[in-house]
Amino acid sequence: MATGITVGIRFSNGSIAYLQNDAVTSGAAGEEILTANQGGDLAQTASISVGQAYTGLVATHAICLVKTQAAATGRMLWANFRGPDGAVIVPISGGGSQVGQMVALYKPVRMSTGVVCYAAWEIAADTGTGTASLDVCSPAKCDNFTVVAVDGANTELLNKDGATIGQSMNGITATQMTARYPSTVGLNNALGGVSTLFVTASDGTLKALIPPQSNEDGVYAGPSISYPVRILQNDGAFVNSDT
């Protein structure tokens, strides 16, 4: 069965964009979501990056929807805009095929050549070895961290370049974090793990708890956490699933 990802975008001038990739491979690495040729009077050019298609416009809101053909099991792991250098500019909210509405981006994104939209998904399942995902945002920098969980063990999340949260965001105060885990029965169904993702200092001191957003099809994703967390070099972000 094929799985497609749709990203809807609203710009500051009131215009709307529609991005689509109809054959995205499951997994945390993700793929680019390209502009879609919808036909009719919606004059969009297929298979080019969002920054090139809408150069000069400023994105203020977006939503990511995942649809698995003939099933309701596809769940978003993460979605984001990235700059020409490949770095995450800002995350995009979303979930399954019927989740939510266009949500305000953490900060506006001006489109230019080299700005791209990427997203990743996984099948929702009763498992303690799914992929955990964490978006972390500050006024200075945003990033995304993922890991395939190990049932019953603390497992550290890393960004796409293999860096920990401390290595990526050392000295930055995060003000928004969003966690996702595509389990049908919850992150800690067997009660031997931890029911949230968490950030710890080098000595194990707990610095943040980030409960996974509701990631069920037809259920609104819910808000991100929004208290300040100062990130230091040896801090780590972890998941401990037990299902």
Report on the architecture of this protein:
By secondary structure, the protein is mostly beta strands. The chain folds into 2 domains: 1-123, no CATH class; 125-243, no CATH class. 4% of the residues lie in helices and 42% in strands. The protein has 2 helices and 18 strands. The chain has helices at 50-53, 165-169; strands at 3-11, 16-21, 27-32, 34-35, 58-68, 74-82, 88-91, 103-110, 116-123, 131-137, 142-148, 155-156, 173-174, 176-180, 197-200, 206-210, 229-230, 236-239. The strands form 5 sheets. The chain has a 5-stranded antiparallel beta sheet. A 4-stranded antiparallel beta sheet has the order 3-9-6-7, with no helix packed on it. Strands 12-18-15-16 form a 4-stranded antiparallel beta sheet, with no helix packed on it. The protein is globular, with a radius of gyration of 17 Å.
